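INFO  loader      accepted 1 record
INFO  loader      residues=90
INFO  predictor   begin
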Amino acid sequence: MLLHGMLQASLPMFLHTLAGDMDSAQPEVLDFYRQHGAEVIDLAEDQDSTDLHKCIAYIEKRFSEAELRRLTILVLGAFPPDPESCWAEA
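INFO  predictor   done
INFO  writer      dumping tokens
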């Protein structure tokens, strides 16, 4: 987890939520972000969409329309190491 090591000091300042099916997340990384106040949302019950789709759906449900217009979403790790994961969704 190169990103985890590189951004360990600065990321917790603005990271609010990690969401996805958590199938490739290392428990110690999730614990680190929980300890720094991030909410970890396990969306594993939905296996018919990508993690990005799950996150966008979660955001749309969680925030009002007015809040969504003011919201900035930062997507990290959007491209998996195995490109076939993306192709399967096309």
